[in-house]
Amino acid sequence: MVDIGLCTRTADDPAMRIHPFASRPLCALVAPSHRLARMHKVAPAELAGERLIFMTEAFGVQQFVQSRFEDARLNVIPAYRVDLFNTAQTLAAAGLGVAFMSSITARRGIELGELVAVPIDHPIAAGFSSQMVTRVGCRLSPAADHLRKQLAQSFLESATQ
């Protein structure tokens, strides 16, 4: 049984207590040498001709990305479809395409200079938030509750940076 979950934009569920954190823009992640790396933000239409790296449909971020393309009436086919954020980041860092996630998710690659995060130019993408999820009515073990508090504190600190 899982005590704590970390996700993006989960559907409302009365059995879950949702704690949003780290509202940051959804970004296109590219290698520093990619043409998009010099941009301050990028519109979905500008991404249509790129080699795209998508997550599998089970990922909330992928559903969100796909809906941005649909809103712009763009029919896109990914070059890659992966099931790990690390794999998407590695492909993008190698210059093999454009991945999509928040800058927090890709923080390590950005800090190492392997990736550049370019915010998606869309009002909804500007406030893309991550969430910590716990079950309503289930008491956490002392260790899990301590972890929840540590995560919440870490999220608050990262939001001010």
TrEMBL record:
Q: Which Pfam families match?
A: LysR_substrate
Lineage, please? Answer: Bacteria, Pseudomonadati, Pseudomonadota, Betaproteobacteria, Burkholderiales
Species whose genome carries this gene: Paraburkholderia lycopersici
GO cellular component labels: cytosol
The protein, known as: LysR substrate binding domain-containing protein
Q: Which GO terms describe its biological process?
A: regulation of DNA-templated transcription
Taxonomically, the superkingdom here is: Bacteria
- Domain spans labelled LysR substrate-binding: 2-154
List where this protein forms a coiled coil. none
